[in-house]
């Protein structure tokens, strides 16, 4: 984890920090690292796709393809880590719920051995607000795999 010198806010999150922000755990924790966190504006998530993930057992056995919905979920988890680090929600017992998924397109298969890079940007939302909107683009080797706009609600548990 690296911090911005001026604010002390993390500009990256390793798996230990991610787990302190997100409630997700195996098999549904879908982001391994988040880098280039620029406040609540933008961030890039990294997902190393491996054959031992449970969805590959049933999602086209013999021709494993990462389900599109899990790619969108991985983008959403990246956005949640971005917001969580910036708003100091580490160990904050935060739950996040999808409210909408729009303008979604899938462009290429994501398979075991791929590294999925998910660039997310906030299009609406502010610290203290509950409803946020994001745009995400997921790529593999510079080639677009998926894109989506999604809206989420943050619920901070007491």
From TrEMBL:
Major location (coarse): cytoplasm
Keywords attached to this entry: Cytoplasm, Lipid A biosynthesis, Lipid biosynthesis, Lipid metabolism, Lyase
EC number(s) given by UniProt: 4.2.1.59
GO molecular function, one term: (3R)-hydroxyacyl-[acyl-carrier-protein] dehydratase activity
One GO term (biological process): fatty acid biosynthetic process
Pfam family, one: FabA
A cellular component annotation (GO) from this entry: membrane
Active site (UniProt): 59
Enzyme class, first EC level, given as a word: lyase
Reactions that this protein is recorded to catalyse: a (3R)-hydroxyacyl-[ACP] = a (2E)-enoyl-[ACP] + H2O
Keyword Cell division: no
Subcellular location: Cytoplasm
UniProt cross-references to CDD domains, sorted A to Z: FabZ
Keyword Cell division appears in the UniProt entry: no
Lineage: superkingdom: Bacteria
Coiled coil regions in record: none
Function (record text): Involved in unsaturated fatty acids biosynthesis. Catalyzes the dehydration of short chain beta-hydroxyacyl-ACPs and long chain saturated and unsaturated beta-hydroxyacyl-ACPs.
Similarity field: Belongs to the thioester dehydratase family. FabZ subfamily.
Protein name as annotated: 3-hydroxyacyl-[acyl-carrier-protein] dehydratase FabZ
Gene transcribed to yield this protein: fabZ
């Amino acid at each position: 984890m690296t911090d911005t010198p001026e604010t002390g806010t993390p500009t990256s999150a390793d798996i230990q920090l991610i787990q302190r922000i997100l409630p997700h755990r195996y098999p549904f924790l879908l982001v391994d690292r988040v880098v280039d966190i620029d406040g609540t504006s933008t961030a890039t998530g990294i997902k190393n796709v491996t054959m031992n993930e449970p969805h590959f057992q049933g999602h086209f056995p013999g021709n494993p393809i990462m389900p599109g919905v899990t790619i969108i979920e991985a983008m959403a988890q990246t956005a949640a880590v971005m917001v969580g680090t910036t708003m100091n929600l580490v160990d904050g017992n935060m739950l996040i719920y999808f409210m909408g998924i729009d303008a979604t397109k899938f462009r290429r298969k994501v398979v075991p051995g791929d590294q999925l890079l998910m660039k997310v940007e906030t299009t609406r939302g502010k610290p203290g607000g509950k409803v946020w909107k994001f745009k995400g683009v997921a790529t593999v080797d510079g080639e677009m795999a998926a894109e989506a706009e999604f809206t989420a609600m943050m619920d901070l548990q007491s």
